[in-house]
Amino acid sequence: MVHRRPLGNGRRLAIVGSILWSLRHVFQWWVSERRGTPTLPLSFWLLSLVGGLFLLAYACSRLDPVMIAGYLFNCLPYARIIVLLRSSSATAAARSS
Q1: CB contact at 8 A, 57 and 21
Q2: What is the pTM of this model?
Q3: Which of 12, 26, 59, 84 makes an SS bond possible with 67, Cβ 3.0 to 4.6 Å?
Q4: Rounded Cα distance, 46 and 8, in Å
Q5: Is 39:32 a contact under the CB 8 Å cutoff?
Q6: pLDDT, mean of each 10-residue run, the chain (97 residues)
């Protein structure tokens, strides 16, 4: 007999976070196909960050130190890359004007 736990808010958060985190690969593939070259657009990193934050919130709700450490440290490079991409876009826009 299979025991099913109800989907509480924490589990829903984890499911949404996992879906968002996984969608980044699909999106990256789609953009690469359209451009005809491998690329990692800003939206890839945004999906990575948001999905990772949802999963971090779920890990915190479970007080799971292994998951917390994993998702906390995964989110740091995502956030930094987003900052770098935005600043390089701003610099490129300034040069072209």
Answers
A1: no
A2: 0.66
A3: 59
A4: 26
A5: yes
A6: 67 81 79 78 88 90 86 85 83 75
